[in-house]
């Protein structure tokens, strides 16, 4: 019974390839034939914990991916990172050809599920759903890339293609800008970037997605007996922190694509925060005016202009201190935004035509506000990009993460043909 689902799909999806040229129909048939081994490989990698901080697990998944890509004629490399970043590194696989566009295919080896969390193995929930840690974000997408390339290689359609596959090891918990130096340099040598984060069904693709950064608010105030608050001791650090956060919400909270989440807030007589563990400790009493407060949050945006405008407004709000309080705010860059562009939409139109040719139907641009930050944004300023090409599913980053197994073969087929058309 193990592969009944995929066998049925091989029959029911046969009509999709009827209008395709013979070569492309052959690719579709090969993807269908290979689905049992594709599923088995997906199950194998899902059952290996590869949380961003589990360096051994990330490397193990990377080795499995590297072995598969090596069989397809790719030259594989492991990019090590400085010890100070505490990350496993990245897998790069390349083939150099003489035809078509040079493609940069993006995935990541890590998941949000660290080794300390309960393991959720690959499980068939029903005839259309599989669950497991990282099954859609992003191991389903990584395996999709390999399955598509395997089908093309079987049909001898990779021989003249120029493709770089770059699977990072720390997308879910980034090691900082230093971790993406090689990533960006390799991408600059290519013409088009395709990223395989979770798909939002068969009919949507990502032409723009928001970036992310972080901010830290520190508040200081006079401290003393609580009976003197609002008078000679002023308002205290906690009231000032609350004023600032409420003004952020009131003045900026309705701007499209802009969000800012205060993920941690502590206040009292003393506050201590450990960046390595993201743990805070505070000391305070009800009859003492709080002398310090700390807030840490993120800021998400679609464009660099939107990010800078928001930061300017936030600084202005911070500067309007309540009496006898003083606040400062600092910002740290994370992942840039992937701005929607005409070039990205032209690429979407090519995918839309292919999808219609296959009988799957149209492909529209998804809402940029519905996506978090992703690796593709690091290279979006240099070339046309699409994201959301991976496995479809729900519940990413939760114990309820699932993958749509009915759509999965069709997404592999479409990716294989998209790569073929772009590199022919």
TrEMBL record:
Please list which residues make up the signal peptide: 1-17
Q: Which Pfam families match?
A: M20_dimer, Peptidase_M20
SUPFAM superfamilies listed in its UniProt record: Bacterial exopeptidase dimerisation domain (SSF55031), Zn-dependent exopeptidases (SSF53187)
Keyword set for this entry?
Hydrolase, Metal-binding, Signal
User: What GO molecular function annotation could you give as one example from this UniProt entry?
Assistant: metal ion binding
Q: Which ranges carry the Peptidase M20 dimerisation domain?
A: 207-323
Q: Per the record's keyword annotation, is ATP-binding included, yes or no? A: no
**What highest taxon heads this organism's lineage?**
Bacteria
Q: Return the PANTHER family for the record.
A: ACETYLORNITHINE DEACETYLASE, ARGE_DAPE-RELATED DEACYLASE
* Name listed for the protein in its UniProt record: Peptidase M20
């Amino acid at each position: 019974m193990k592969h009944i689902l995929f066998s049925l799909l091989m029959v029911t999806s046969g009509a999709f390839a009827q209008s395709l040229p013979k070569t492309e129909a052959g690719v579709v048939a090969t993807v269908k034939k290979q689905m049992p081994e594709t599923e088995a490989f997906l199950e194998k990698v899902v059952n290996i914990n590869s949380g961003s901080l589990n360096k051994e697990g990330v490397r193990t998944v990377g080795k499995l991916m590297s072995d598969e890509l090596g069989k397809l004629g790719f030259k594989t490399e492991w990019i090590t990172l400085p010890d100070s970043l505490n990350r496993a590194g990245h897998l790069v696989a390349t083939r150099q050809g003489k035809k078509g566009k040079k493609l940069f295919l993006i995935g990541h080896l890590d998941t949000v599920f660290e080794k300390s969390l309960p393991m959720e193995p690959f499980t068939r929930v029903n005839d259309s759903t599989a669950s497991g840690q990282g099954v859609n974000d992003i191991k389903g997408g990584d395996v999709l890339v390999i399955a598509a390339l395997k089908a093309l290689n079987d049909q001898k359609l990779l021989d003249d293609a120029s493709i770089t596959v770059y699977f990072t090891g720390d997308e879910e918990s980034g090691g900082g800008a230093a971790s993406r130096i090689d990533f960006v340099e390799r991408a600059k040598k290519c013409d088009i970037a395709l990223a395989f984060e979770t798909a939002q069904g068969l009919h949507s693709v990502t032409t723009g997605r928001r970036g992310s950064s972080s901010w830290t608010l520190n508040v200081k105030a006079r401290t003393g007996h609580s009976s003197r608050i609002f008078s000679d001791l002023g308002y205290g650090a906690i009231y000032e922190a609350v004023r600032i956060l409420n003004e952020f919400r009131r003045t900026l909270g309705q701007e499209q694509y802009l969000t800012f989440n205060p993920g941690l807030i502590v206040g009292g007589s003393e506050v201590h925060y450990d960046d390595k563990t993201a743990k805070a400790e505070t000391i305070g009493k009800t009859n003492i005016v709080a002398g310090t407060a700390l807030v840490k949050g993120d800021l998400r945006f679609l464009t660099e202009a939107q990010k800078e405008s928001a930061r300017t407004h936030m600084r202005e709000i911070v500067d309007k201190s309540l009496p006898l309080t003083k606040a400062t705010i600092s910002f740290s860059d994370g992942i840039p935004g992937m701005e929607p562009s005409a070039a990205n939409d032209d690429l979407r139109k090519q995918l839309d035509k292919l999808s219609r040719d296959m009988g799957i139907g149209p492909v529209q641009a998804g809402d940029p506000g519905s996506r978090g930050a992703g690796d593709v944004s690091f290279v979006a300023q240099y070339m046309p990009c699409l994201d959301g090409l991976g496995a479809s599913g729900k519940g990413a980053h939760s114990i309820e993460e699932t993958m749509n197994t009915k759509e999965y073969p069709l997404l592999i087929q479409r990716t294989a043909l998209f790569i073929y058309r772009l590199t022919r």
